[in-house]
Amino acid sequence: MEQDAQYCSRCGYKLTAFCPKCGSRLEPAATFCSSCGLQLTRYPASQAIHGQPQVPATPQVSQAPAIPSTIIIKRPFPVGHTIAAGIGSLLMLIALAVPFYTFRIHGYSANVKATDLLTSDIDWIGIGLPVLLIIIFSSVVLLSVIIAFLTKMSLRPLWSSLGILCIWAVIGSAGYMIYWLAEGAGAGVVVGDTGHVVNIVAPGVVMAFIGAIIVSGSGGR
Predict the structure, then answer these.
(1) Is residue 98 domain-shared with residue 197, that is, in the same domain?
(2) What are the Cα distances from residue 158, in Å, to 92, 147, 163?
(3) Residue ranges in the chain whose pLDDT is less than 70
(4) Sequence-ordered strand ranges (E) for the chain
(5) Buried b (16+ CB within 10 A) or exposed e, 68-83
(6) How many domains does the chain have?
(7) Are residues 40 and 103 both part of a single domain?
């Protein structure tokens, strides 16, 4: 087509010029675009497309990543709670090596350890079973603490449950021992006057009870 052609020489279609920058319709003799102010004399006539506007390309907008329907929040590994559970279980295990009870019978004193309670023939279920449960539960807690450090997995619900069970085991053992002494029978000695038999809570019971409380607390918030 000629540069100043107004109609198509083949089909007779009326030609219209458009701005090469903003695509607005141009007047036939325009030298500036009335919409964007572009100086048309700086551009060759081939850029002012006849018949349809040259609209600037629309910038491509990258699609935002899809938001997952389920959001998983990973909690940090509870180092402090894990260390506390380990300390509490060690206290309970160490308590097995020190006297659990101290008996004073007619001026004589005797220290009884956990191993003595387990091998005793006197009411093993009432006296030795709670101590055996403390041994089992504290060993499981210590093993789970090692597993937690290796796998970085929190086992706080387990520690809370086992700690509460250990607390009741210590209370049950001490309570049953006091009740047993009050009945006047202990270590094969029949005591008529319970004032001659005194049960002193030894360090073993104290350590086991404190360790059980620490393990139970390590499973809390």
Answers:
(1) yes
(2) 16, 12, 8
(3) 1-6, 15, 28, 40-74, 105-107, 120-124, 182-198, 221
(4) 101-105, 108-112, 185-186, 189-190, 197-201
(5) eeeeeeeeeebeebbe
(6) 2
(7) no
